[in-house]
Amino acid sequence: MKKVIVIGSPGAGKSTFARKLRDITGLPLYYLDMIFHNPDKTTVPQKEFDKQLADILATDQWIIDGNYQRTLPLRFEKCDTIFFFDVPLEECLEGATERIGTKREDMPWVEEIFDEEFKQYIIDFPKDQLPLIYDLISKYEVDKEIIVFKSRTEADAWLKGYSYE
């Protein structure tokens, strides 16, 4: 496990898991939200985002946290391990709500409100994003290590049982 992606709905626990995995493995961790978003809540141009992502993918070791559906096929191709958080919608909404007002290393600003558009994205994630992710998984399941978590508890249990060499 040297090239890892962590994907799933916002609020599912991806970033927390990715930080814990980084701490265990020592692999460098990159948050796509930190690459895409500026501290003033604007976004970088697609070309700049793609260049930064390509630079990361060209290295020998990484954990990349985030969905960014458009770039998933490329990241699936380049990674050796996929952690996919397919947790219940209620858990994702709760996770996103709990982090409001908290400074996090995976976002360049503190979320002060639960933005309605973002909330709707989470609500729509099971119907809009999950089928596309499962389709990609089916194409790569022979070549990649794929771990699907149905809860944060499962993810924590996996981390407790993992030893990195």
- Beta-strand residue percentage: 5-15%
Kindly report how far apart the N and C termini lie.
Answer: 10 Å
Count of strand segments: 5
- Shape call: globular
Low-confidence stretches: none
Task: Indicate the mean pLDDT.
Answer: 95
Class inferred from helices and paired strands: alpha/beta
Essential attributes:
165 residues, alpha/beta, five-stranded parallel beta sheet
What can you tell me about this protein's structure?
The protein has 165 residues and is α/β, with parallel strands linked by helices. The protein is built from 8 helices and 5 strands. It has a 5-stranded parallel sheet with strand order 2-3-1-4-5, with helices on both faces. Helix 1 runs parallel beside helix 8, helix 4 packs parallel to helix 7 and helix 5 packs antiparallel against helix 6. It is globular, with a radius of gyration of 15 Å. The model has no long low-confidence stretch (mean pLDDT 95).
Topology of this structure?
Blueprint: E1 3-8, H1 14-25, E2 29-31, H2 32-36, H3 46-57, E3 62-65, H4 72-78, E4 81-85, H5 89-98, H6 116-128, H7 130-140, E5 145-149, H8 152-161
Parallel strand pairs: 1-3, 1-4, 2-3, 4-5
Question: Brief description of this entry?
Answer:
By secondary structure, this protein is α/β, with parallel strands linked by helices. The protein has helices at 14-25, 32-36, 46-57, 72-78, 89-98, 116-128, 130-140, 152-161, and strands at 3-8, 29-31, 62-65, 81-85, 145-149.
